[in-house]
Each structure stands twice: as C-alpha cells, then as structure tokens.
Specification:
The chain is an alpha/beta fold. It contains 14 helices and nine strands. It has a five-stranded mixed sheet with strand order 5-7-6-8-9, with helices on both faces. The protein has a four-stranded parallel sheet with strand order 1-2-4-3. Helix 11 links the parallel strand 8 (about 250-255) and strand 9. Helix 2 (about 15-30) packs parallel to helix 3, helix 9 crosses helix 12 and helix 10 (about 235-245) packs across helix 11 (about 260-270).
Amino acid sequence: EVASKVGLYAEYSTNEKVAFEVSLAASWSGLRSVVTMKHVGLNVAADSFMSAAYQGTKGGMVVVSADDPSMWSSQNEQDNRMYAMFANIPVFDPIDPQEALEMTKYAFDLSEQIGSLVMLRPTTRVSHTRGDVTIGDLPENKENAVRLWGKFKKNPEKYVVLPSRARRMHPEVLNRIEKARKLLEEIPFNWEEGNGDIGIIVSGISYVYLKEALHLLGLEDRVSILKIGTPFPLPLNRVEQFLRKFEGHKVLVIEELEPVVENQIKVLVYDKKIDVQIHGKDYIPRLYEMTTRRIVEALQKYLNLKKRISFDHVDEHAAKVSEKLPPRPPTLCPACPHRNTFYAVKRNAKGKGVYTGDIGCYSLGALKPLETMD
C-alpha cells in the first residue's frame, strides 16, 4: 500500500547475483535502487559486483550487505568491509537503526555524486535492534502514484567491459574513491568527542559497546573518542588530526572482526611519520561479535586498571539458567518439504550413499534424526 502511494517497486530474486543485476539495471536506467543480502550472499553476487565497481552507476545504488559476527545464522563471519576495499567502493558502518537510515539517505546522494556503488554494512545487532527512528521529510503522497520507469541509454563504452575498456576504467575507479574520501571528511557520521588523555578510535556498533564499557569503568571523562562511520575510504585528514594529539603515546582501535580501520591507520602513521603506537587486535581478537564485556576486559588490560569488573556472576547465572532450560536445537518447520526429501533419499540410499548439501534451511538435514548430509 505504501509502495503504491510513493511509486516504489520491490521484488525477490532467484539469488543474490540476479538481485544485484536487477538493481544495477535500474541504476543504469537512471533510477535509484537498493539491493539487500547477507554477507555470504555477496559471494554469490561477487562476479557482477566487482565488474560493476568498474562500470559505475547512473542512478544512486546502495548495496546493503549485513554481516553476521559470531555466525549466529551463517557458515562464516566474513567481514564485508574487506569486499568494499577490494572493489574500491565506499562502505558505511552504522551504530543503530537511526544512523543506518541517515547513512542510507546519504549513500544514495554519494553514489550519484561519484558515480559508484556504495555499501551499507550493518552487523547482526544493528539488524536485529528495535528503536525509535526519526524519519524526516518524506516525498509527498500521490493519490494515483505512477511508478517511475527508467530509460536505458546504450553506452557500450561504459557498460561492456572489454579488456581495453577495463584498463581505462580502473584509474576512474581509483579517482572515484579518492573523490569520495574528500567528501567523507566532513560528514556527520565521523565525529570526535571527549577531551581526555586516552585516545580511542572506534568503528560501527562497537561505539555503543564502548560507551557502556566506559560508563562501567568510570572512564567517561578520561577518554577522547574518534568515532568512524566510514571505514573505507577512511577520512585520513580527520584521523591524522586526532592522532597528532597523542604523539608520544598510544591509541586503541576498536572494531568488530577484521582490522580494517586499524591497518589503514597503521599505514597512515608510517607514511606521515606520526609518533603514536597503534593497538587494536592485540587486545581485541578478530573473532566473534563485539560485546561490552570484551571491551571492558580489553580496556582493563590496555590501561592496566586497578579497578576491575568481574563477570563471574554473569557466567554463574548463565550456567544455572542453561541447566534448567531444555536444549532447543534448530529444526525444520512442521510440514517442511525438505523432511520428505531427506527421508526418501535416506531410505533409498540404504546407508550406501554420500549425502551432499548446501547452505540454507536444508543444512538442518545434517542433524538428528535425518542425518543426511556428509
């Protein structure tokens, strides 16, 4: 109903590659488009995704790729900020639903300004969070809204990636990302707060956990924070200005999963000869989801704090609850057709077959009582 009033169109696709190409076709026809998938879905779309980074866009196009630290419902916890770096496209890392909304709005504008794909990378907690969101101004509703139809203008020099054209396009890709870097220096998603003697650079939802950890440790007034919302391209001028305040000292970088921001900062420190020790993954591992507890424990070690917060009572309570709760392993839904398929295959193979499988719901066929994935 809402879509019809404002002229929106949405559809499901067979897989992520097809979805990406449908969205790209809309962009090349002059329409704004967004394609959504989880992190491993971008692997499926990667062939088209990497080429589109060269070809560029016309209408603004945003790729929403939601990461899953700790693999709550995934087969890996790849960090798709690395994909953005690989493709040389901007990526935004929101801290909450409100910032995800604002970043998405800006991402469309940025995409059209530089002619490039732009990625939004929410992680599990952002995607599962509920919160009040201020929408802002919306397009006026029309009683009989007419969906906009794009018009594709043939341009084989841009859209047909022959080797000779790709060689010309690659410098354009690098120029676009540097143009984006300049634009991202002044946006409101990267900011500084505090005036303490402890320097911390934090990216994405880790910012929220950091604020809670500082409160628990009573360190709010002792820190200076540089919050990063654009892990790539990093706003190097703003980062350098922050680091200069801590020359002769050390700065901690906090981010979920891979050291994407940390490594860029280390290169900057080397290139600009900034006398600052950069720490990050030597205190917070590259594994699993960020939590307040992980940051508390990292800060206690990093700052050699005498005040210690123990989480033993939390562990003890969790253990007691786990003892009382019955196990609830994932299972196929009642009447799911996969049940019959697995049963028929297992009955006919009579234990002599090799059962192959893939991702998705039917990976549950590996569990009891079916046990039909080897």
